[in-house]
Amino acid sequence: MPMGEFDLIERFFKRPRQEAVVGIGDDCAVWAPRAGHQLVFSADMLVEGRHFLSTVDPTRLGHKSLAVNLSDLAACGATPKAFLLSLSLPRVDETWLSGFSQGLFALAKEHGCELIGGDTTQGPLNIAITVMGEVPAGEAVMRSGAQVGDDVYVSGNLGDARLALEAFRGTVRLPEAVFDLARLRMEVPTPRIALGQALRGVAHAMADVSDGLVGDLGHLLKASAVGAEIDWPLAQPLLQSLQQWACPNDLAMTCVLSGGDDYELVFCAPPSAAERVQMAAQSSQTAVTKIGRITPAPAATSSGQTLVLRDSHGQIVPTQFRSFDHFA
Amino acid sequence: MPMGEFDLIERFFKRPRQEAVVGIGDDCAVWAPRAGHQLVFSADMLVEGRHFLSTVDPTRLGHKSLAVNLSDLAACGATPKAFLLSLSLPRVDETWLSGFSQGLFALAKEHGCELIGGDTTQGPLNIAITVMGEVPAGEAVMRSGAQVGDDVYVSGNLGDARLALEAFRGTVRLPEAVFDLARLRMEVPTPRIALGQALRGVAHAMADVSDGLVGDLGHLLKASAVGAEIDWPLAQPLLQSLQQWACPNDLAMTCVLSGGDDYELVFCAPPSAAERVQMAAQSSQTAVTKIGRITPAPAATSSGQTLVLRDSHGQIVPTQFRSFDHFA
Questions:
Q1: Strand runs labelled E in B58-136
Q2: Closest Cα to residue A118, out of A128, A126, A109, A108?
Q3: N or C terminus: which one in chain B shows less Cβ crowding within 10 Å?
């Protein structure tokens, strides 16, 4: 007799209840919010062949499925609390489910994020997660607070995930060690939860870099009604693979500026907060790099561009980078 | 230039913010819970060809996508507050999107349920919604509270959606008027929100009937560690189509008992609360039918069955009904 929907949930996805008043297994989960706090929500959907290759290790995929959601919480400075998982599966593959749930719950446990509900059904592989986090009331960091004169920072590294994708596509050949590192960045992203929390009250505005720096910083600039200048000599070294491999400059630009799948934080803070930014980086053990500054809105600048890239001589680099768009 | 992901959201899914502190458009939505209340959550995923036919009217599909989620809130006695929508689309079809969003938002507006976030991507058609509702602290109605001697009630009608499915499958021919009515039940279910709320403090236990009465009542019985007897002469007339068409008894049993897609409420309340149940039905303008009673757990009964069906002479009807299982 094949494994049914409820056996599947029982075997692979049910865990002891933690903070939830009612967890998995009823029509609804019940959650008692803490006084003085607000809840933040985000949802991401991952589709086979689009967000991940069909050959990806299921443990890594389980990790990534939750990681991309936690990254949104990080961008608001929130503490992860709970998530709901809806899963469409072509068939009940116990090996796959075992790996997927291991990767998922290892990351969930690391961040104290509890699975409180969801749905399973048969269909093309699709992983939809809604995640909930908590912030002290009024302290969520949004995209809309950037101010002219703020410094622009990025956490960790940018572009290696895209470099791995290009290698998978066959457009570039990488030395094995470089490919392995880049592939790890693509398949096992690290949500910057601790840094995001440490930046509450420090960063004026923050977003996570999931569709590429140009696109995601672009949304932040639009929401804040400002522009920005990025210094390419400061941004280029964010491509970690450069430490071991001489990546052509054009490819480095594509990867760093419009790569996607980075799950780093881009944020803005005033120069007066520079020391507090460094303290947040240290306390969260997360590298932080200043890559530019916030300028007046494009209508007020000579270039007319929202986002300007400058080379080592301060000259404007002509760019036509676009963010990743699933329907473009 | 094709419509991009952000244009699509802007055009079809962005609505003015209502109760949310931060709505659609940032990395996360922000929600300020009301003091003295708990939040309840549920998630459902609808896949083309499995949960709906590819030819279904998109307006009806938009309605149904939210309705099945609201039905879970109803089963807890919750007031709908907000939802997140993740949507995988094969292509940007503006006619489809326009219809879908109209059906979705018409129902959302009716229940004051605000879209606060989500995701859109390209892929096989898949609709994943997470819904959030609110209950006064400690008042959520769960599946686990049924007590021996409770009456078992069902709201509205049962089985007509399954009858429509059988007609679509060609296993039965229905008069046109009967088919139209049954099809409406399948494609435009009514979540019993007002009844669910009115039954807080009245019903001992409640669940929504989405996978068929036998299955969903079965989950309630298991969670409550009790059994139940259903009187077929009381349950059979719940098939609304019977009013116009002489449905064979076997087919009526299949439809009413293990039909699925009903989105009615099944609930248990003590005989002493019978009048309050009727008042809840009246105040919510929702029909309620008593169909049986809660018995001791099966180990303590002579039949050894959790759920017993009795005919008009009180004799046990042998049944082998199963609930709908996506992987069975």
A1: 79-89, 114-122, 126-136
A2: A128
A3: N
What confidence tier does B8 reach under pLDDT thresholds 50, 70, 90? Answer: confident
Quick one: pLDDT band at residue B1, thresholds 50, 70, 90? very low
Residue type, B69: N
Question: Which residues of chain B have a CB within 8 Å of the CB of A8?
Answer: 327
Please provide the average confidence, as pLDDT, over all residues in chain A.
93
pLDDT over 70 at A325, yes or no? no
- pLDDT at position A1: 43
**What are the distances in angstroms from CA A182 to CA A46, A168, A193, A285, B304?**
20, 11, 21, 21, 59
Q: Which CATH superfamily is domain B143-317 in?
A: PurM-like C-terminal domain (3.90.650.10)
Range(s) of chain A covered by CATH 3.90.650.10: 151-310
- Token code pair at residue B121: 């991507």
Look at strands A264-269 and A205-209 and give their pairing.
Answer: antiparallel
Do the Cβ atoms of A44 and B208 come within 8 Å?
A: no
Q: Say whether A41 and B31 touch across the interface (CB within 8 A).
A: yes
Whether domain A151-310 has CATH 3.90.650.10? yes
Which tokens go with B244? 């116009």
Gap between the Cα atoms of A313 and A321, Å rounded: 21
Closest to A56 measured CA to CA, from A125, A130, A157? A125
Size of interface A-B (CB pairs under 8 A): 233
Q: Whose CA is closest to A75, among A145, A124, A172?
A: A145
Return residue ranges of chain B for CATH 3.90.650.10: 143-317
A294's enclosing H/E stretch is: strand A288-295
pLDDT tens digits, one per residue of B274-322: 999 999 999 999 999 999 999 998 765 666 788 999 999 999 988 765 5
Asked whether residue B324 carries a pLDDT value surpassing 60, the answer given is: no
**pLDDT reported for residue A274:** 98
Contacts of B119 in chain A (CB under 8 A): 43-45, 128
In chain B, % of residues over pLDDT 70:
95
Here the ipTM equals 0.93
Predicted confidence band of residue A10 (pLDDT cuts 50, 70, 90): confident
Q: How far is B300 from chain A (nearest CA, A)?
A: 25
CA distances from A173 to A160, A167, A183, A244, A250 (A): 14, 6, 13, 14, 15
Question: Does the pLDDT value for residue A137 go beyond 90?
Answer: yes
pLDDT digits (tens, 9 = 90+) for A53-70: 888 999 999 999 999 999
Phi/psi at B239 (5° precision): -70, 105
Q: Where in chain B is the domain with CATH 3.30.1330.10?
A: 5-136
**C-beta atoms of A27 and B143 within 8 A:** yes
CA-based nearest distance A150→chain B, Å: 20
Choices 3.30.1330.10, 3.40.50.300, 3.30.450.20, 2.70.150.10: CATH for B5-136:
3.30.1330.10
**DSSP secondary structure string for all residues of A181-209:** HHHHHHHS----HHHHHHTTTT-SEEEEE
